[in-house]
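Appendix C reproduces, verbatim, an entry submitted by the partner laboratory led by Prof. M.T., so that reviewers can inspect both the input and the predicted structure.
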Amino acid sequence: MTLAALPALQAPGIRDVLAGFLLSAADDELVIGHRHSEWTGFAPDIESDVALSSIAQEEIGHARLLYDHVAELLGGEPDALAYGRGPEAFRNGVLVERPNGDWGYSVVRMVLYDHADAVRLEALAGGDAVAPLADLARTLRREERYHVIYGAQWLRRLAGASEDSRARVQAALEAAWPEAGALLAPVEGQDMLREAGVLAIDGASQQRRWREAVVPLLTDMGLRVPAGAGEARDGRRGAHTVDLTTLLDEMTSVWRSEPGARW
């Protein structure tokens, strides 16, 4: 049975809301995967080079699986969703589109993003109304667990290396924190998914669980959690920066040279 035919997705508008939710998750994974891949050959050591390249590959693979379900709900091709849209049509969080900066910023962003992604997958895995999506979320969650561990290990290493290193990590956290708060910004109509049993956790509870995970982690490393959430663009509604335009121009250049070709 296709997703569109499932009883839980027969209410007016709910398939579009679910497609929007999955699209935002897929865009996050694709964009952060591309940013991670930019460290290939430039990471601090060979082990990190290999590890982050592997993580990048997994994130992009997760994006593909999510795009498959979006295409099933809305029609079209997964590759066109990934490579054929302009930046205004992307629904990723703004934090993931930012340039890598130094290694400390990339590690801070990884920790903040992967904890948000873990909460989002938990919400989807706990929904019992659409079993194929719950099963997919449980599969992705097993792989993402190692991303969380890897990022936390590196962050602890950087925060504890020296006073100068901790200060640089703190500066990275100050820069990333305002946009991290929008990583779990709900898509329009997301409450419908909770009411239908597609998601097990509502948006406010997701935000709370994310903070409950990251705040103790950061403070235990001697880092100061910035006050408030700050102001950030809402990438879930297409409010992006020129950083995404630049990234997409690079990421899609080969596909755009001959759209629809089989590479």
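The longest helix spans residues 131-161. Additional entries are available on request from the coordinating office.
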